[in-house]
Amino acid sequence: EIVNTNSDGTILPQYGTNMLSFKGSRGATSAIYTRQIDLSKTSESKLDFWYWHDNTASTMDYTNVKISLDGGASFQTIAIIRKNDGSNSGWTYYSLPLDNFNAPCVIVSFSAMRWTTDDYNGEQLIDRIRIYGKHDLAISEIISSDYDICNLTGRSLGVVLNATTSLNIDF
Questions:
Q1: Within 10 A of 9 (CB to CB), how many other CB atoms are there?
Q2: Beta sheet of 124-134, edge-to-edge order
Q3: 12 phi, psi to nearest 5 deg
Q4: C-beta of residue 126 within 8 angstroms of C-beta of residue 110
Q5: CA 84, CA 161: separation in Å to the nearest integer?
Q6: Are 105 and 15 in contact (CB under 8 A)?
Q7: pTM (whole model) above 0.85
Q8: Backbone Cα Rg of the chain
């Protein structure tokens, strides 16, 4: 669910005006999936997000971050984030490398599991999910006049660059 505050109104989003809230009864699992993303031509791609930790919550409440390379037929877990990780309560920034997942049909999933029985402590919050990579460029054309290859000093040379990265991500 997209919310602008947590269930009891005490936690605001880290960025902007909304955040994701995973709620449910004890033993429930909630998940969100991205659309298919083409990371095949990216370099140093990453998944960044903010997660609300609560050191008073059950250590059994967690969120799995998963990746699919086959359009969602199967997923592999790349991170397990516990709501109570023994640190201080509050927003924590995560940056997960995706270099091993440079494929044309990537899906990212956040799957939250709840074991806590009370409303507030069982809620898991995630904010500002970003997927990005360095844009790769390719020279598609060299524009030149009749230059003497031995005398290029002070001469202009034109090139046409094309972005080879496709990162149009729409949740």
A1: 9
A2: 2-3, 19-22, 124-134, 43-53, 90-97
A3: -105, 160
A4: yes
A5: 48
A6: no
A7: no
A8: 22
